[in-house]
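Following up on my earlier thread - several people asked me to post the actual chain instead of describing it. Fair enough. Here it is, all 110 residues.
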Amino acid sequence: MQQARMIGNFIKSQADRRHMSIADLAEILNCTDHQVMSLLKGRALASFSQLSLLAQRFEISVAEILHGNSETYNETVVHCMNRFQNPENREKILDLIDDYMDIVDAVSDN
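Reply from S.P.:
Thanks for posting it. Predicted structure:
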């Protein structure tokens, strides 16, 4: 799940640099705002064709999107959890939070 969070974070940072809104991303990806938010939070993955559309719009490669940016990820996503001696523990906790949020979303959708 860490990789999904890094990809979502990278997409968000690229969109922010270009002053693109959630609605702009939803239009590019042909999906809902809710789906875009799930992607940006790392709780959903984009298809290769969606990644290709983003790469084209951002003028970067799909590989760059898939690689993400660990420095930005650490500064913006996990900065409050950097005191963990073992980064794997930090990621396990974030995975549990993501699982919990998936359950909350599933229950609230019904």
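Residues 87-109 form the longest helix (23 residues). That should answer part of your original question.
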